[in-house]
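Hi support team,

I submitted a single chain yesterday and got back a structure, but I'm not sure I'm reading the token output correctly. Could someone confirm the output below corresponds to the sequence I sent? I've pasted both exactly as they appear in my results page.

Thanks,
R.
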Amino acid sequence: MDFKTLCIHGSNVKYDTTGAVSVPIFQSATFAHPGVGLSTGYDYSRVQNPTREHLEKTIANLENGTDAMAFSSGMAAVTALMEMFQPGDHIIASDDLYGGSHRLFSHISRKNGLSFDFVNTSDISNITACIRPETKALFIETPSNPMMQVTDISAVSELCKKHGFLLIVDNTFLTPYFQKPLDLGADIVVHSGTKYLGGHNDTLAGFLVVSDSSLSERLRFIYKTVGSCLSPFDSWLLIRGIKTLAVRMERQQENAMKIADWLCTNSRIKSVHYAGLPSHPHIEVSKKQTTGFGAMISFETDCKKTALHLLEHVRVIQYAESLGGVESLITYPMLQTHADIPEEERLAKGINERLLRLSVGLESAEDLIEDLRQALEGA
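Hi R., thanks for writing in. Yes, this is the structure output for that exact sequence:
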């Protein structure tokens, strides 16, 4: 079945007999048993709920996975994922990583006995140099947040399989519409469903999608035990958002390409990081493993004053955290998404006082460019 059709119909499981076109919201914490030792298949919503099940089957189908689990946020999903590991286990991760993931790994997971090496995973030799006998996983973002580094998923998958550890890919920026990490050899895919999957900046959600039943069994046990499942109503919002995923991703990418090209011509902008630019150092890897480049752009202004002036003078674009919604949002990573990363580490990655991150929405590209132009004019 075509991806666009899957977005709309998701799963062929039917949950009622009324003919409702919209999946019902089963707003129930518990379900009655038809008899002793019998079950309808649903017992308690922390374990499973029909609305959430429809969403999870949809996500699993879109990612070509065997199972998907929906969490109350992206960070709840990553936190549960870390429960797969034991004290003493070692994980290699992208050094250019969402600040929340970096914070979790550095302050919570390390406290729980895990160790981490953060490296530029776009260069496979960096990963190879960090492998130890106790290495259990490689955790990558591609494109990465916020510097848009691209990692060759197939190549690192071969390395992981050779050494016997898991490959985990955060696919939030591209979604399964543009990139399918499981098809390229990943074992687990992570999503912040708050972003493009939901698409409307109105709810939080997270997902783990797995490639085989053994991983599903391990994670399902953790899932029901820690209890960070997505509510029925939020599950319904994600089901509704995913119906337009394909058309949103296409239009947002079209807008992003126009804006990235324009930014490259503006004298107040010193560098532009967008995976779809011909100048991107890993454009050929992107072309090989994706069907699109997404709608996330980071760019560096000529000075701090220009960056601050732009943030305070945009009118259509909103200065706010998050990304992936229909509204365009601009973020100041050093003060927002990556504020908890030590300054020396942050600056080494290029996350400085001049760097801004733009999530391109569905507004007119011409209006967005005009908004950026007028915000830069008086800087």
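A quick pointer for reading it: The chain has two domains: 3-242, 246-377. Let us know if anything else looks off.

Best,
Support desk
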